[in-house]
Amino acid sequence: MKLLRDENLPHDLRHFLPGHDVFTVAYMGWKGLENGELMSAAAREDFDAMLTLDSGIPHQQNTSQLPLSLVLIHAPSNTLDDLRPLIPDLLHALGELKPRELIQIPKVL
Fold it and tell me: Domain of 28?
């Protein structure tokens, strides 16, 4: 799966996502793009999903019209120490991800 890692997640997170091609916003030259523009650019480049900690996106975007899947991670901070316990759930969710779906890790009921 081709994943875009948002600027708010640590670069080394990619090492914990085996079997996935993980690209950074900076690597793609998209630093500073607003969320809607960023997701549209990622969809044009055939990304399957964007990983982010930005909990405002569901309130800023029409989630029924997402151009690609969005994985919203809820963690106390963006450090690997806080993200590491969520990785098993993240990997499981990525394995079941549907196109243009919003999922939250951990799952929010």
Answer: 2-105
pLDDT per residue, tens digit, the chain (109 aa), is: 999 999 999 999 999 999 999 999 999 999 989 888 999 999 999 999 999 998 888 777 777 788 899 999 999 999 999 999 999 999 999 999 999 999 999 976 4
DSSP line for 38-72 = HHHHHHHTT--EEEE--TTHHHHS-GGG-SSEEEE
Report d(CA 54, CA 18) in Å as an integer: 23
Segment holding 2, helix H or strand E: strand 2-5
pTM for this one? Answer: 0.91
- Collapsing DSSP to helix, strand or coil, 52 comes out as strand
Q: Are 55 and 7 in contact (CB under 8 A)?
A: no
Q: How many residues does the chain have?
A: 109
The domain total for the chain is 1
Domain of residue 99, CATH code: 3.40.50
